[in-house]
Amino acid sequence: MKAVHFGAGNIGRGFVGLLLHEADYEVVYSDVNAELIAALDAADTFTVHEVGEGARDHEVSNFRAFDSTQKMKEIVAEIASAELVTTAVGPNILRFVAPAIADGLRARGDDAPPLAVMACENAINATDILRAEVEKLMTDAEGQAALNRAVFANTAVDRIVPAQAAGAGLDVTVETYYEWAIDRTPFGGTEPVIPGATFVDDLAPYIERKLFTVNTGHATIAYYGFSAGAHAISDALGRPEVELAVRAVLDETKQLLVDKHGLDAAAQQAYIEKILVRFANPHLPDTVDRVGRQPLRKLSRHERFIGPAAELAERGTTPVALIDAVVTALRFDVPDDEQSVELQQKLGALSADDFVREVCGLSPEHPLFAPLTAAIANTAG
Ligand SMILES: NC(=O)C1=CN([C@@H]2O[C@H](COP(=O)(O)OP(=O)(O)OC[C@H]3O[C@@H](n4cnc5c(N)ncnc54)[C@H](O)[C@@H]3O)[C@@H](O)[C@H]2O)C=CC1
Ligand SMILES: O=P(O)(O)OC[C@H]1O[C@](O)(CO)[C@@H](O)[C@@H]1O
């Protein structure tokens, strides 16, 4: 069995690639990073090192790698004969991997089994985003027929994989915890066998619980931590004011998740406590810069802050802690992070109203617009 995986980075090697390897797939990596591809090409194995309680090492083998800037024809041929395609490239990059998937589907024989396509990104229904990009390239009759050769399934992925130390080579350090939830329904009973993944009938609560708890909480710690001058995430969370802020934010998202999905409040609180322990893992060399990366994406309409805050406002509750977290995120000023630089430029150039419209995607009619704009304007003043 073969899986083509786009994005041989931290999640690609330390999580999705590992679970596919352990499910007996040969993993064919595709990445734009020529150095990384050359290293994978030259290696027979790499090691995923877990850190924290119960940690152990996992060896990954049986992989190949292609540079997608040079070897598109080869990647298309691999997709034509694969069982699975997965991605871990970032939600904004999905449109760049769509052409290879479209061509791979076109090159696939009619009698080949359906190709399972799963985007493993931190975004609500990332596979739908990928599917829409593939569909744009399939408007002709042949393309429509080729689309039927694929099953697109949304997923939710959770494992903290920090930036790797210089000199780590291909090896990846990860936390012990992981969860890969996959929507079972598109497969109609023929889902792939991946023992490390959990196939579920209703993915929405999983994705929102994960994004609005793990990712909202983590990013809150990053922005408050950055603001307080902390470097490591575990140090940031060790500051009482940061812990208070993240607990307040997670209380608000808990309210939404419990009301919207009928989650049990005590179970959600236990999930929060478990996640705070994961964030505090002192063996995980994770930084506020990495976790806060790409702030414009994180402050966009359906992401971890504005997404839950908007829904709370629509349900009649004006969030306080989430708005404070957004205001704190605006201080994220990291010269190496393109979106952080752009964020600072926008703050200098736009009024609070225009910022909320443009960056957060809210119109003045939305119930979150006025309180959020006021909070941002107060900070600027
Ligand atoms: N690192 C983490 O703890 C987690 C990350 N995620 C999500 O996983 C995704 C990947 O994140 P990371 O692995 O941390 O990032 P990363 O930066 O380590 O890896 C991304 C890889 O994608 C490659 N890439 C970029 N453009 C490409 C293209 N057009 N074709 C093929 N490859 C391309 C990059 O060269 C890089 O190797 C993101 O959506 C992130 O939100 C989800 C859960 C946890
Ligand atoms: O910043 P991004 O790209 O959304 O993804 C990284 C996030 O995903 C996580 O791994 C959680 O699954 C956190 O480490 C981090 O907050």
From TrEMBL:
Its Gene Ontology cellular component terms are:
cytosol
NCBIfam families documented for this protein: PRK02318.2-5
Q: Per its UniProt record, what HAMAP family does this chain match? A: Mannitol_dehydrog
Q: Mind giving the lineage of the organism this protein is from?
A: Bacteria, Bacillati, Actinomycetota, Actinomycetes, Micrococcales
Provide a Gene Ontology MF annotation, just one.
mannitol-1-phosphate 5-dehydrogenase activity
Which named protein is this? Mannitol-1-phosphate 5-dehydrogenase
Q: Which gene encodes it?
A: mtlD
Q: Which residues form the Mannitol dehydrogenase N-terminal domain?
A: 1-195
| Any single GO BP term | mannitol catabolic process
Mannitol dehydrogenase C-terminal domain location is: 202-344
Q: What class of enzyme is it?
A: oxidoreductase
Q: Which key words are in the record? A: NAD, Oxidoreductase
Q: Which Gene3D superfamilies match?
A: N-(1-d-carboxylethyl)-l-norvaline Dehydrogenase, domain 2 (1.10.1040.10), NAD(P)-binding Rossmann-like Domain (3.40.50.720)
UniProt key word Oxidoreductase: yes
Reaction catalyzed: D-mannitol 1-phosphate + NAD(+) = beta-D-fructose 6-phosphate + NADH + H(+)
As for family, the record states: Belongs to the mannitol dehydrogenase family.
Record PANTHER family: ALTRONATE OXIDOREDUCTASE-RELATED, MANNITOL-1-PHOSPHATE 5-DEHYDROGENASE
Instruction: Spell out the InterPro entries in the cross-references.
Output: 6-PGluconate_DH-like_C_sf, 6PGD_dom2, Mannitol_1_phos_5_DH, Mannitol_DH, Mannitol_DH_C, Mannitol_DH_N, NAD(P)-bd_dom_sf
Under Enzyme Commission nomenclature, its number is 1.1.1.17
- Per the UniProt entry, what species is this protein from, by scientific name? Homoserinimonas aerilata
List ligand-binding residues for NAD(+): 3-14
